[in-house]
Amino acid sequence: MHEAALFAASLAGRAGTLSLRQPPFLPQLSRPLRSSLTIIRPLLMLLLFCASGLAHGWDMTRIMQQTNELYEPDRAARKRLQAWHALLDQQKLTGTEAQLDAVNRFFNAQLFFADDRVIWGEADYWATPVESLVNGSADCEDFTISKYFSLLKLGVPDEQLRLTYVKSLKLDQAHMVLSYYPTPLSEPLILDNLVRNILPASRRSDLLPVYSFNSQGLWLPGKVSDRRVGSSRNLPQWQDLARKMRDEGFDMTLRTAQ
Asked: Given this model, what pLDDT does residue 152 score?
């Protein structure tokens, strides 16, 4: 987390004016199409992935084969991976609220928190969901990454999700959470490995937002609205993460907007 924390610190001079307000999204799907999705959502799952800027091919047989070759998971790791696959299968036709809750609870229960130096022997390492589940441990970034890609797999649009760097006022250190925006103008909901329940940002006064990002861009929060300041291409760990997931058998294209 060290390098990303340094980047966050470079933005922290603006911290007195930061807030978790809604960032400017890309155009939403039309109202008629949104209504249709509630009826034919399974048939349009691939369309949602492409519209969000992430194209996934989740061949679980291939992923498990690659996982076995790359990591040689033990019995406990296999059990966690199988539970993850089962979760994605069980939740694919449920509503977004249920998906958020299920994914948040799953990773908070399956993974133990540990620092990157303890897990990987590195100051800042962004693990894939598979790596985290194989190890059974993760830091805050890894929890957030696992939740992010799981929700994308379930059909939650990318523009509604933000990986958000914050300062934890209680811990007095950098932290990462996943922010979900139900609508472009709504207050985000916060998925956090330190808190069991999903809460709106207004009830997380212990968090001071610094910046947020997804595959489509990078934003600084402001008094009125978030301001786009660049691309997630500015985060080398993000590009490395996509490469590692491809190596694990995820047929995915991670598009970063200019």
From this structure: 94
Neighbours of 169 (CB within 10 A): 13
Q: Cα–Cα distance between 214 and 162 in angstroms, integer? A: 5
What residue ranges of the chain have pLDDT lower than 50?
Answer: 12-30, 32-55, 255-258
- Contact (Cβ atoms closer than 8 angstroms) between residue 115 and residue 139: yes
Domains and CATH numbers, the chain: 2-249 (3.10.620.30)
Phi, psi dihedral angles at 2 (to 5 degrees): -65, -50
Return the number of other C-beta atoms located less than 10 Å from residue 66's C-beta.
17
Tens of pLDDT, residues 164-182: 999 999 999 999 999 999 9
Residue type, 55: A
Q: Which pLDDT does position 1 carry in this prediction?
A: 62
Residue recorded with tokens 């790791």? 77
d(CA 45, CA 183): 19
